[in-house]
């Protein structure tokens, strides 16, 4: 489960031979020493190096290897080994940098897995000391009980590490109130390249080598005072180069409150080029007790930019905490995302060209509400009466901020090879020039046949803008031309070329342009002083490469895709787009040799949103392993490397792909939560088909896939088959033959099941003619293993006055229908297509009449709304998908229309606590709320949703012996502890596998919502 030494070898033994054979001698020596001298994870395989060769930028640089330290001591030893072997060191946190800071040809050290602890918190003095790998949201969750938080609120707070934020001098949405990282870091303990550990803090308290460093920097600042005064941008958002101005402040917000000097600020923004961080001491702030948000709708983008300078004057004692832009492109793309659309619609007045999100924070909600009213008055004075939407409740504010946080990634969801490219997005200009600057830059984009997508921090004059460029076809020269013209505008308006996201590979060469040769040479002097051997992140800040060097890019002109004939329909991704209009060509016209599959994989822009640990579903296997390869991003990168031949000629059949996809549980969390729409569950179906087509299907594959075919026959021998769960020897024998874990109980067969129970449903003709018709689709699992669920659903629907038709085959044996889910999970796409076509054709007459098709098992019913649409079944599948509803979705819809009053009157009260666990597919399709709504129809019921990720079973995944440990760890993250904590609660779980996990892991019987409702009648 854990990341390992490359090529599956034991720690220390034979490392050199294995690595040097596939890489080179230096890599072999490096891997051998790391494996024998440290406790960390040593990752030198072609897949590992490929996964760490990219970040959220346009660049790709393959490292010598990757090291994941378990402790500070591991980090120090790795630094020493790198110095001995002259291998550069590239520190990395979440890998979300947008300028290429976390990629490099040396040894990448990933701090995010183990070196992520809160070392101390001093609530009285509002300080905390942390390790560099801790994620911002995780720190703030730890601090919440103290009433404090770390307020550098970056949009990637769910995945950005504090070490990376310090390296970039990150800023965030609320910097107008709290400042940048440099304003909120009190001290840094770090190793210089020689291996010496230093404490960097207040200059007046510095001793030893740290004092010497400070004195040399002070001398440089005195020597270059005139150049600093003349060349240094006079804006808060300036992160280029080194903070030489700590001894001669140039920022509109001084780095320290008392005007003193803190040497830690020299390391902030240094992008890992000066020292390797051991720990950071942070300045905390009081957590705002109340917030109010005013969303200003603007008819033109120019008006929004021009108004920002007036809005910031509403600030009263620091209560104005954010003024954030959302442009028309982002609005349109957000409206296309099912997770974001309802939130955005609630903030719109008509069809605005731009929004400004104006936030006030403080102790008194009423006072903040008055500030929003002042905002409304101001907009009236500026000629825009009635343009403000007030959001005063916390839930609606949080939801809208989540959309804004996802802004960059939403805009990267544009299909086609043209993508918004980051290289001038952090230019910062004084607020009074913001409208003119953005207007002139828009003209530059038009001149070069493109347009920009805008978002971010209007409050401080930093507007993130990304022109749409096709980096495979002439994008690099256009990038250069636009950068040169944009820089002229920055100089004209006395701004900063690098305002937030750092220099990295894309802005490093502009440092000398910004500061001039004398200051640039001073930067080089500082680098040599700290790192004379150029060991730490070479070619960053000092001697950087050209930003348009295509040899460093993820999609250089030489990028090629290996032809693939996919089993699923990926043509929707196989398009091209017009950079000026963002319109895309027809599906299937994009020129992808993989017929859209490669372009779907390439939608991942490495933003790392999948690294989040909140209550969503995203990447449950990553949550328990914290391994990059078990992350949606890691899997997408592996697939991209494979389809482009970078893993070798085997393409998708490479072992690295098999390893990366092994723990993907097809939860569909990424389908809903990934802002760029990466659907790894569907990609795994495609890969499994391609793999098995070449290598054959195992007995386990066949048993799972063909379950619907043999279920009726097997049920006749239920007594014999169920002995497996009662005789340990049979379970062990079964594991040896099939791979199903002996420690797992298997679902119990029923000889008396739903399909032979004599349930008298309405005929096809009767339901088509009925006043309240419904079709009940009973799947294999609820039909042959848990018939009580199907019988309960039938009873509830009849009690509610519906004419219920049980879906069955039209001809032949007239038996149950199958959605094809089990075949898809085993990669048998052709067989799945046959089953799905049969189901679709049978359901079509009902769908055409608008009759709901109601299912019980989320993974089966929702197949009609997902994979069935990618099987080439035409418009019939689309018609059926629109009428396919889960049991609770149907009841919730009917209740909202007033058609369940009779049923509600029959329900008896429930006095027990009620816990609800959502199936992953329910979460992915936004189908959890209907479950809660329907359960609330029961008098006295107060359903409590368990905030859990995947239960860990995921169909057959958790039954397999090789996945048992990971499966149980997923369940133990939150689900099983929550169930154990309330032993008297009724537990509702609609998923067959979810109920089984709860049974095995907590020795509790969870029930389907239909069973609870039927029991209350």
From TrEMBL:
Any GO MF annotation of the entry: iron-sulfur cluster binding
Iron found in the keyword field: yes
Location of the FAD-binding PCMH-type domain: 59-287
A GO biological process held by the record: lactate catabolic process
Cofactor(s) this protein cannot do without: FAD
Entry-linked InterPro entries: 4Fe4S_Fe-S-bd (IPR017896), 4Fe4S_Fe_S_CS (IPR017900), Cys_rich_dom (IPR004017), FAD-bd_oxidored_4_C (IPR004113), FAD-bd_PCMH (IPR016166), FAD-bd_PCMH-like_sf (IPR036318), FAD-bd_PCMH_sub2 (IPR016169), FAD-linked_Oxase-like_C (IPR016164)
Keyword Iron on entry: yes
Protein name: FAD-binding protein
Native organism: Ramlibacter albus
Higher taxonomy: Bacteria, Pseudomonadati, Pseudomonadota, Betaproteobacteria, Burkholderiales
